[in-house]
Amino acid sequence: MLLQRILTALVLAPLAILIILLPPTGIFAGIVALAFLAAGWEWAQLSGLHSRPWRVALLLVAAVVFALLWRSHATALTPLLLAAGAAWWLLACLWLRHFAFAAAPTRENRTLKLLAGAFVIFPTWVALVSIHARVPHGHWWTLLALVIVWASDIGAYFSGRTFGRRKLAPQISPGKTWAGAYGAMVAGVLVAEAGGWLLGVRGAALLMLALLTALTVAASIVGDLIESLMKRHAQVKDSGTLFPGHGGLLDRLDSVFAALPVFAAGLALLGLDQ
Known about the structure:
The chain is an all-alpha fold. Helices cover 76% and strands 3% of the residues. A two-stranded antiparallel sheet has the order 1-2. It is globular and about 50 Å long. It starts with a helix and ends with a helix.
């Protein structure tokens, strides 16, 4: 399984980097939107929407929303959506605390989870597009944001396997440990500091970047746990079978969905990406 994960990552990482290096135009935004629509398809299925025609209709609505967001990007709506995305992940912590909430397969719970999916997907798309469009280093800040998430995942995996004893959330994801969370934090901050230095961040700004990265990694862990909770409610192991050893697209993007709105909001607030 580890070999499968490594081989799949070796294929996906260069593809992601090539997409990031595209100019900040509608092509980049469209490719990201297509990937997020695929993840939204999996989220809808985890939410209990098993009717294929209804899921197709839901994705068509989501595609229209992406188009409207593109027309209004770089306006006053952007910081509002980033704030909404960051606030959602704070609210998600309460959902994790009461992990049995919305577990029953009722129409109300399905609607609640579908609504949550909107707060998961759309603010993250706005975050990616806004970071990518920053001048002069938008490409590299976008790459750094993703590398922080990837590094934290790797740090969590190896730290958890080596030192993991105390479980982080045993009722939701028994494999995750506090040691893994600490390893994720350390790996993410180290990568952010190195990347920030290469991008010209110096002095007190590096400390602010470290603090922002710590919040970003914490959010990524919440995102991972929320998807694990969704899968536990749906009684499935993976969100899909798209990637060998990795599960579905949502399995690969769960941490990204939570991390990027927080990182983008922090960059804009602190002015670190200028």
